[in-house]
Design brief:
five-stranded antiparallel beta sheet, alpha+beta, elongated, disordered N terminus
Length: 448
Protein backbone atom coordinates (compact mmCIF):
# COMPACT_ATOMS: atom_id res chain seq x y z
CA UNK A 1 0.00 0.00 0.00
CA UNK A 2 1.32 3.44 -0.94
CA UNK A 3 1.73 5.64 2.09
CA UNK A 4 3.04 9.10 2.78
CA UNK A 5 3.04 11.29 5.86
CA UNK A 6 2.58 15.00 6.29
CA UNK A 7 3.35 16.47 9.68
CA UNK A 8 2.18 20.05 10.19
CA UNK A 9 3.55 22.06 13.07
CA UNK A 10 1.43 24.97 14.29
CA UNK A 11 3.10 27.85 16.05
CA UNK A 12 -0.02 29.72 16.95
CA UNK A 13 1.41 32.29 19.25
CA UNK A 14 3.84 33.47 16.55
CA UNK A 15 2.17 32.78 13.23
CA UNK A 16 -1.55 32.33 13.72
CA UNK A 17 -3.58 29.87 11.66
CA UNK A 18 -2.83 31.14 8.11
CA UNK A 19 -1.22 28.40 5.96
CA UNK A 20 1.58 30.60 4.70
CA UNK A 21 2.68 30.92 8.34
CA UNK A 22 2.83 27.18 8.95
CA UNK A 23 5.86 24.91 8.77
CA UNK A 24 5.50 21.63 6.89
CA UNK A 25 7.27 18.32 7.15
CA UNK A 26 6.79 15.93 4.24
CA UNK A 27 8.30 12.45 4.06
CA UNK A 28 7.62 10.13 1.14
CA UNK A 29 8.99 6.60 1.37
CA UNK A 30 7.10 4.98 -1.53
CA UNK A 31 6.04 6.34 -4.95
CA UNK A 32 2.84 8.35 -4.82
CA UNK A 33 0.91 10.51 -7.28
CA UNK A 34 1.73 14.21 -7.19
CA UNK A 35 -1.97 15.06 -7.34
CA UNK A 36 -2.55 13.22 -4.05
CA UNK A 37 0.01 15.40 -2.30
CA UNK A 38 -1.51 18.53 -3.86
CA UNK A 39 -4.96 17.37 -2.78
CA UNK A 40 -3.84 17.00 0.85
CA UNK A 41 -2.22 20.45 0.81
CA UNK A 42 -5.42 21.85 -0.75
CA UNK A 43 -7.56 20.34 2.01
CA UNK A 44 -5.19 21.41 4.76
CA UNK A 45 -4.92 25.02 3.58
CA UNK A 46 -8.32 25.41 1.90
CA UNK A 47 -6.70 26.12 -1.49
CA UNK A 48 -8.33 25.91 -4.93
CA UNK A 49 -6.16 24.27 -7.61
CA UNK A 50 -6.32 25.47 -11.23
CA UNK A 51 -4.50 23.46 -13.95
CA UNK A 52 -3.96 25.51 -17.13
CA UNK A 53 -2.71 23.00 -19.72
CA UNK A 54 -2.92 19.31 -20.55
CA UNK A 55 0.79 18.68 -20.00
CA UNK A 56 0.55 20.00 -16.44
CA UNK A 57 -2.44 17.74 -15.82
CA UNK A 58 -0.47 14.70 -17.02
CA UNK A 59 2.44 15.54 -14.73
CA UNK A 60 0.05 15.83 -11.78
CA UNK A 61 -0.85 12.19 -12.44
CA UNK A 62 2.79 11.06 -12.32
CA UNK A 63 4.61 9.66 -9.29
CA UNK A 64 6.81 11.37 -6.77
CA UNK A 65 9.35 8.76 -5.64
CA UNK A 66 11.11 10.17 -2.62
CA UNK A 67 11.05 13.46 -0.70
CA UNK A 68 12.23 14.30 2.81
CA UNK A 69 11.31 17.83 3.84
CA UNK A 70 11.35 19.02 7.41
CA UNK A 71 10.04 22.28 8.87
CA UNK A 72 9.72 24.21 5.62
CA UNK A 73 7.20 26.98 4.85
CA UNK A 74 4.49 26.34 2.25
CA UNK A 75 6.30 28.36 -0.44
CA UNK A 76 9.43 26.18 -0.19
CA UNK A 77 7.34 23.01 -0.14
CA UNK A 78 5.50 23.94 -3.34
CA UNK A 79 8.71 24.98 -5.07
CA UNK A 80 10.42 21.66 -4.32
CA UNK A 81 7.39 19.66 -5.46
CA UNK A 82 6.76 21.48 -8.73
CA UNK A 83 10.41 22.04 -9.66
CA UNK A 84 10.85 18.27 -9.64
CA UNK A 85 8.27 18.09 -12.48
CA UNK A 86 9.22 21.29 -14.28
CA UNK A 87 5.89 22.97 -13.45
CA UNK A 88 5.24 26.68 -13.06
CA UNK A 89 3.05 27.65 -10.12
CA UNK A 90 1.60 30.80 -8.64
CA UNK A 91 -0.31 31.13 -5.37
CA UNK A 92 -2.53 34.19 -5.20
CA UNK A 93 -4.99 34.34 -2.35
CA UNK A 94 -6.44 30.88 -2.01
CA UNK A 95 -5.89 29.86 -5.69
CA UNK A 96 -2.95 27.71 -6.76
CA UNK A 97 -2.36 27.85 -10.55
CA UNK A 98 -0.25 25.19 -12.25
CA UNK A 99 1.08 25.16 -15.81
CA UNK A 100 3.77 23.42 -17.82
CA UNK A 101 4.15 26.32 -20.26
CA UNK A 102 4.56 29.98 -19.44
CA UNK A 103 4.72 33.11 -21.59
CA UNK A 104 7.33 35.76 -20.80
CA UNK A 105 8.27 38.97 -22.62
CA UNK A 106 11.84 40.31 -22.75
CA UNK A 107 13.07 43.79 -23.75
CA UNK A 108 15.91 44.13 -26.25
CA UNK A 109 17.45 47.56 -26.89
CA UNK A 110 18.52 47.56 -30.51
CA UNK A 111 17.74 49.44 -33.71
CA UNK A 112 14.98 47.83 -35.81
CA UNK A 113 16.81 48.32 -39.13
CA UNK A 114 18.32 45.61 -41.25
CA UNK A 115 21.80 46.77 -42.33
CA UNK A 116 22.94 45.60 -45.75
CA UNK A 117 25.32 46.83 -48.39
CA UNK A 118 28.54 46.50 -50.32
CA UNK A 119 31.66 48.45 -49.41
CA UNK A 120 33.26 48.02 -52.85
CA UNK A 121 34.74 51.35 -53.85
CA UNK A 122 33.75 50.61 -57.45
CA UNK A 123 30.12 50.99 -56.50
CA UNK A 124 28.18 53.08 -58.95
CA UNK A 125 25.42 54.00 -56.51
CA UNK A 126 25.20 57.31 -54.73
CA UNK A 127 25.26 55.63 -51.34
CA UNK A 128 28.44 54.60 -49.58
CA UNK A 129 27.77 51.06 -48.43
CA UNK A 130 29.57 48.48 -46.35
CA UNK A 131 30.54 45.02 -47.43
CA UNK A 132 28.25 43.01 -45.21
CA UNK A 133 24.69 42.06 -44.48
CA UNK A 134 23.50 42.14 -40.89
CA UNK A 135 19.94 41.37 -39.86
CA UNK A 136 20.08 41.39 -36.07
CA UNK A 137 16.45 40.41 -35.56
CA UNK A 138 16.50 37.57 -38.06
CA UNK A 139 19.67 36.21 -36.43
CA UNK A 140 18.06 36.58 -33.02
CA UNK A 141 14.97 34.68 -34.19
CA UNK A 142 17.12 31.79 -35.45
CA UNK A 143 19.21 31.68 -32.28
CA UNK A 144 16.16 31.65 -30.02
CA UNK A 145 14.57 28.86 -32.05
CA UNK A 146 17.75 26.79 -31.81
CA UNK A 147 17.93 27.28 -28.03
CA UNK A 148 14.28 26.28 -27.62
CA UNK A 149 14.69 23.26 -29.90
CA UNK A 150 17.91 22.08 -28.24
CA UNK A 151 16.31 22.36 -24.81
CA UNK A 152 13.11 20.54 -25.75
CA UNK A 153 12.13 19.01 -29.10
CA UNK A 154 8.63 20.41 -28.60
CA UNK A 155 8.74 24.20 -28.76
CA UNK A 156 6.74 27.23 -29.84
CA UNK A 157 8.22 29.83 -32.19
CA UNK A 158 9.25 33.08 -30.47
CA UNK A 159 7.29 36.23 -31.28
CA UNK A 160 9.52 39.25 -32.02
CA UNK A 161 8.35 42.85 -32.33
CA UNK A 162 11.52 44.52 -33.59
CA UNK A 163 9.98 48.01 -33.70
CA UNK A 164 9.12 47.82 -29.99
CA UNK A 165 12.20 45.76 -29.15
CA UNK A 166 10.12 43.02 -27.50
CA UNK A 167 10.70 39.26 -27.57
CA UNK A 168 7.88 37.01 -26.33
CA UNK A 169 8.66 33.40 -25.49
CA UNK A 170 6.22 30.64 -24.60
CA UNK A 171 8.04 27.61 -23.24
CA UNK A 172 8.80 25.24 -20.44
CA UNK A 173 10.64 26.20 -17.27
CA UNK A 174 13.91 24.85 -18.66
CA UNK A 175 13.44 26.62 -21.99
CA UNK A 176 12.68 29.96 -20.34
CA UNK A 177 15.68 29.60 -18.05
CA UNK A 178 17.99 29.07 -21.05
CA UNK A 179 16.40 31.94 -22.99
CA UNK A 180 16.70 34.24 -19.96
CA UNK A 181 20.43 33.50 -19.60
CA UNK A 182 21.03 34.04 -23.33
CA UNK A 183 19.12 37.34 -23.52
CA UNK A 184 20.75 38.62 -20.32
CA UNK A 185 24.20 38.01 -21.82
CA UNK A 186 23.12 39.50 -25.16
CA UNK A 187 21.76 42.66 -23.53
CA UNK A 188 24.92 43.01 -21.48
CA UNK A 189 27.09 42.85 -24.59
CA UNK A 190 24.84 45.15 -26.63
CA UNK A 191 25.16 47.88 -23.98
CA UNK A 192 28.93 48.05 -24.45
CA UNK A 193 30.18 50.88 -26.65
CA UNK A 194 33.56 51.73 -28.12
CA UNK A 195 34.87 55.21 -28.88
CA UNK A 196 37.32 54.89 -31.77
CA UNK A 197 39.86 57.69 -32.14
CA UNK A 198 41.42 57.70 -35.62
CA UNK A 199 44.24 59.88 -36.97
CA UNK A 200 44.77 59.62 -40.73
CA UNK A 201 48.02 61.06 -42.12
CA UNK A 202 49.27 61.37 -45.68
CA UNK A 203 53.03 61.30 -46.17
CA UNK A 204 54.20 62.66 -49.53
CA UNK A 205 57.30 60.56 -49.97
CA UNK A 206 60.58 62.28 -50.67
CA UNK A 207 62.85 61.14 -53.51
CA UNK A 208 64.85 58.93 -51.10
CA UNK A 209 61.73 57.08 -49.90
CA UNK A 210 59.91 56.31 -53.16
CA UNK A 211 59.39 52.71 -52.10
CA UNK A 212 57.56 53.79 -48.95
CA UNK A 213 58.31 54.67 -45.34
CA UNK A 214 61.23 52.76 -43.84
CA UNK A 215 59.38 51.36 -40.83
CA UNK A 216 62.43 49.45 -39.62
CA UNK A 217 63.83 52.77 -38.37
CA UNK A 218 60.73 53.54 -36.31
CA UNK A 219 61.05 52.91 -32.59
CA UNK A 220 59.54 54.23 -29.38
CA UNK A 221 61.36 53.83 -26.09
CA UNK A 222 58.87 52.89 -23.40
CA UNK A 223 59.67 53.16 -19.66
CA UNK A 224 58.43 49.63 -18.95
CA UNK A 225 60.81 47.86 -21.37
CA UNK A 226 64.57 47.65 -21.62
CA UNK A 227 64.76 48.11 -25.37
CA UNK A 228 62.77 50.20 -27.88
CA UNK A 229 59.60 48.76 -29.42
CA UNK A 230 59.66 48.90 -33.19
CA UNK A 231 56.59 49.40 -35.35
CA UNK A 232 55.70 47.63 -38.56
CA UNK A 233 53.61 49.09 -41.35
CA UNK A 234 50.86 46.55 -40.90
CA UNK A 235 48.88 45.48 -37.84
CA UNK A 236 50.75 43.16 -35.49
CA UNK A 237 52.22 42.89 -32.01
CA UNK A 238 55.08 45.24 -32.95
CA UNK A 239 52.73 48.01 -34.07
CA UNK A 240 50.62 48.17 -30.89
CA UNK A 241 51.55 50.68 -28.21
CA UNK A 242 50.33 51.65 -24.77
CA UNK A 243 48.59 55.00 -25.30
CA UNK A 244 49.98 56.31 -22.02
CA UNK A 245 53.52 56.11 -23.43
CA UNK A 246 52.81 56.55 -27.15
CA UNK A 247 54.18 59.95 -28.15
CA UNK A 248 52.25 61.31 -31.14
CA UNK A 249 54.69 64.17 -31.63
CA UNK A 250 57.67 61.80 -31.84
CA UNK A 251 55.74 59.59 -34.23
CA UNK A 252 54.91 62.51 -36.54
CA UNK A 253 58.52 63.67 -36.47
CA UNK A 254 59.51 60.18 -37.63
CA UNK A 255 56.99 60.40 -40.50
CA UNK A 256 58.36 63.83 -41.41
CA UNK A 257 61.78 62.25 -41.98
CA UNK A 258 60.22 60.31 -44.86
CA UNK A 259 58.44 63.23 -46.55
CA UNK A 260 55.86 65.97 -46.12
CA UNK A 261 53.17 65.05 -43.56
CA UNK A 262 49.56 66.20 -43.85
CA UNK A 263 46.76 65.42 -41.44
CA UNK A 264 43.82 64.23 -43.57
CA UNK A 265 41.30 63.66 -40.82
CA UNK A 266 40.95 63.01 -37.09
CA UNK A 267 37.48 61.53 -36.63
CA UNK A 268 36.14 60.16 -33.36
CA UNK A 269 33.25 57.79 -33.73
CA UNK A 270 31.22 55.83 -31.18
CA UNK A 271 29.76 52.47 -32.11
CA UNK A 272 28.04 49.62 -30.32
CA UNK A 273 29.86 46.39 -29.63
CA UNK A 274 30.20 44.29 -32.84
CA UNK A 275 28.75 47.09 -35.02
CA UNK A 276 30.62 48.68 -37.92
CA UNK A 277 31.97 52.21 -37.74
CA UNK A 278 32.49 53.77 -41.18
CA UNK A 279 34.74 56.73 -41.96
CA UNK A 280 34.88 58.11 -45.52
CA UNK A 281 36.95 60.99 -46.85
CA UNK A 282 36.77 61.83 -50.54
CA UNK A 283 34.55 62.93 -53.39
CA UNK A 284 31.51 61.60 -55.17
CA UNK A 285 31.87 61.85 -58.95
CA UNK A 286 28.63 62.05 -60.95
CA UNK A 287 28.09 61.00 -64.55
CA UNK A 288 25.14 60.67 -66.93
CA UNK A 289 24.52 57.66 -69.13
CA UNK A 290 21.83 56.52 -71.55
CA UNK A 291 19.77 53.93 -69.71
CA UNK A 292 16.90 53.38 -72.16
CA UNK A 293 16.04 54.18 -75.79
CA UNK A 294 12.39 54.14 -76.82
CA UNK A 295 10.49 55.21 -79.95
CA UNK A 296 7.28 57.19 -80.11
CA UNK A 297 4.31 56.52 -82.41
CA UNK A 298 6.06 58.30 -85.26
CA UNK A 299 9.17 56.17 -84.93
CA UNK A 300 11.30 58.94 -83.40
CA UNK A 301 13.85 57.64 -80.86
CA UNK A 302 13.80 59.02 -77.32
CA UNK A 303 16.70 58.50 -74.98
CA UNK A 304 16.28 58.34 -71.22
CA UNK A 305 19.29 59.25 -69.08
CA UNK A 306 20.24 58.16 -65.59
CA UNK A 307 22.57 59.98 -63.19
CA UNK A 308 25.13 57.64 -61.62
CA UNK A 309 27.89 58.30 -59.12
CA UNK A 310 31.15 56.87 -57.88
CA UNK A 311 33.03 57.44 -54.64
CA UNK A 312 36.75 58.24 -54.84
CA UNK A 313 38.90 58.67 -51.75
CA UNK A 314 39.56 56.95 -48.43
CA UNK A 315 37.12 54.52 -46.86
CA UNK A 316 37.83 52.99 -43.47
CA UNK A 317 35.44 50.56 -41.83
CA UNK A 318 36.20 49.23 -38.35
CA UNK A 319 34.27 46.61 -36.41
CA UNK A 320 35.12 46.33 -32.70
CA UNK A 321 34.29 43.31 -30.58
CA UNK A 322 34.74 43.51 -26.82
CA UNK A 323 35.72 40.29 -25.07
CA UNK A 324 34.61 39.40 -21.54
CA UNK A 325 38.07 40.25 -20.18
CA UNK A 326 37.93 43.78 -21.61
CA UNK A 327 40.14 43.25 -24.67
CA UNK A 328 39.07 44.64 -28.04
CA UNK A 329 39.31 42.73 -31.31
CA UNK A 330 39.33 45.17 -34.24
CA UNK A 331 38.51 44.13 -37.78
CA UNK A 332 40.00 46.92 -39.89
CA UNK A 333 39.48 47.36 -43.61
CA UNK A 334 40.94 50.54 -45.16
CA UNK A 335 40.42 51.18 -48.89
CA UNK A 336 41.84 53.91 -51.07
CA UNK A 337 40.80 54.79 -54.61
CA UNK A 338 42.18 57.35 -57.03
CA UNK A 339 41.68 58.21 -60.71
CA UNK A 340 43.66 56.32 -63.30
CA UNK A 341 43.57 59.31 -65.62
CA UNK A 342 42.77 62.78 -64.31
CA UNK A 343 41.81 63.89 -67.85
CA UNK A 344 38.53 62.05 -67.32
CA UNK A 345 37.47 64.97 -65.12
CA UNK A 346 38.03 67.53 -67.85
CA UNK A 347 35.15 66.41 -70.07
CA UNK A 348 31.55 65.38 -69.81
CA UNK A 349 31.27 61.88 -68.43
CA UNK A 350 28.93 59.28 -69.87
CA UNK A 351 30.43 56.36 -67.94
CA UNK A 352 32.09 55.80 -64.53
CA UNK A 353 35.69 57.06 -64.30
CA UNK A 354 38.39 54.41 -64.07
CA UNK A 355 39.98 54.18 -60.62
CA UNK A 356 42.91 52.47 -58.92
CA UNK A 357 42.02 50.77 -55.66
CA UNK A 358 44.28 49.74 -52.77
CA UNK A 359 43.03 47.84 -49.77
CA UNK A 360 44.19 46.19 -46.56
CA UNK A 361 42.45 43.79 -44.23
CA UNK A 362 43.70 43.29 -40.69
CA UNK A 363 42.35 41.76 -37.47
CA UNK A 364 44.18 42.74 -34.27
CA UNK A 365 43.60 42.37 -30.56
CA UNK A 366 44.15 45.43 -28.36
CA UNK A 367 43.75 46.25 -24.73
CA UNK A 368 41.55 49.20 -23.79
CA UNK A 369 43.24 52.52 -24.74
CA UNK A 370 46.09 50.87 -26.67
CA UNK A 371 47.19 52.45 -29.96
CA UNK A 372 47.60 50.68 -33.30
CA UNK A 373 49.75 52.04 -36.14
CA UNK A 374 48.65 50.82 -39.57
CA UNK A 375 50.34 51.86 -42.81
CA UNK A 376 51.68 50.62 -46.10
CA UNK A 377 48.98 51.90 -48.48
CA UNK A 378 50.87 53.77 -51.20
CA UNK A 379 49.16 55.68 -53.99
CA UNK A 380 50.38 57.58 -57.05
CA UNK A 381 48.58 60.92 -57.11
CA UNK A 382 48.34 62.80 -60.39
CA UNK A 383 47.41 66.47 -60.63
CA UNK A 384 47.03 68.71 -63.68
CA UNK A 385 48.77 72.01 -62.92
CA UNK A 386 47.81 74.93 -65.19
CA UNK A 387 50.16 77.95 -65.42
CA UNK A 388 49.51 81.04 -67.50
CA UNK A 389 48.27 84.59 -67.77
CA UNK A 390 45.30 85.22 -65.47
CA UNK A 391 41.93 85.49 -67.26
CA UNK A 392 43.47 84.81 -70.70
CA UNK A 393 44.30 81.23 -69.76
CA UNK A 394 40.58 80.62 -69.19
CA UNK A 395 39.36 81.83 -72.62
CA UNK A 396 38.53 79.00 -75.05
CA UNK A 397 40.78 78.46 -78.08
CA UNK A 398 43.29 81.23 -77.25
CA UNK A 399 43.94 79.83 -73.77
CA UNK A 400 46.53 77.48 -75.26
CA UNK A 401 48.59 80.52 -76.36
CA UNK A 402 48.71 81.97 -72.85
CA UNK A 403 49.00 78.89 -70.67
CA UNK A 404 50.94 75.72 -70.09
CA UNK A 405 49.85 72.48 -68.48
CA UNK A 406 51.98 70.23 -66.35
CA UNK A 407 51.11 66.75 -65.13
CA UNK A 408 52.48 66.38 -61.59
CA UNK A 409 52.85 62.89 -60.13
CA UNK A 410 53.61 62.22 -56.47
CA UNK A 411 53.76 59.14 -54.27
CA UNK A 412 51.92 59.17 -50.98
CA UNK A 413 51.62 56.67 -48.15
CA UNK A 414 48.62 56.73 -45.86
CA UNK A 415 49.13 56.01 -42.16
CA UNK A 416 46.33 55.24 -39.71
CA UNK A 417 46.76 55.68 -35.94
CA UNK A 418 43.81 53.99 -34.21
CA UNK A 419 43.02 54.01 -30.48
CA UNK A 420 39.82 52.35 -29.15
CA UNK A 421 38.30 53.28 -25.79
CA UNK A 422 35.66 51.15 -24.07
CA UNK A 423 32.83 53.36 -22.81
CA UNK A 424 31.32 52.45 -19.46
CA UNK A 425 27.62 53.26 -19.83
CA UNK A 426 27.14 52.94 -16.06
CA UNK A 427 29.18 56.09 -15.43
CA UNK A 428 28.85 59.57 -16.90
CA UNK A 429 31.94 60.57 -18.86
CA UNK A 430 32.90 63.18 -21.42
CA UNK A 431 35.57 63.22 -24.13
CA UNK A 432 37.85 64.88 -21.58
CA UNK A 433 37.74 61.67 -19.51
CA UNK A 434 39.04 59.73 -22.52
CA UNK A 435 42.06 61.98 -23.00
CA UNK A 436 40.63 64.54 -25.44
CA UNK A 437 41.13 67.67 -23.35
CA UNK A 438 42.77 69.34 -26.34
CA UNK A 439 43.29 67.96 -29.83
CA UNK A 440 46.77 69.06 -30.97
CA UNK A 441 47.49 70.26 -34.49
CA UNK A 442 50.66 69.54 -36.46
CA UNK A 443 51.91 73.00 -35.41
CA UNK A 444 51.22 72.23 -31.74
CA UNK A 445 53.25 69.04 -32.07
CA UNK A 446 56.14 70.97 -33.64
CA UNK A 447 56.37 68.68 -36.63
CA UNK A 448 59.11 69.87 -38.98
Amino acid sequence: MKRFFIFVFFINFLFGLNCDKKLFTLKIENPILLKDIVKNISNECNINVLVKDEKAYKLLNSNIDFINIENEPLKNLLQILFDSKGLFYSLKGNTLTLSYYKTKTFKIDFIPNTITGNSDLNSTTNNLKTNYSFDFWNNLQNNLQNILKNTDKIYKNPVIDKNAGLVTITGTKKQLNEISKYLYTLNKRLRKEVLIDVHIYSVELSSSHKTGIDWSNFSLSLPSVSKPIRGRYIGGSESVFNSATFNLGAFLNFLAQNGNVNSISNPKIVTLNSQKAIISIGDTIYYKYASEITTDNNGNPTTSYTIGSKFVGVLLDITPQISDNGEIILSINPKISSFKDIKQLQSKRDMPPDTKDNTLMSVVKLKNNETLVLGGLITNDEQLKVNGVPVLKEIPIIKYLFSSREKVTSKKELVFVITPHIINLNSKKTLRDYGFDKIPSLEDLNVK
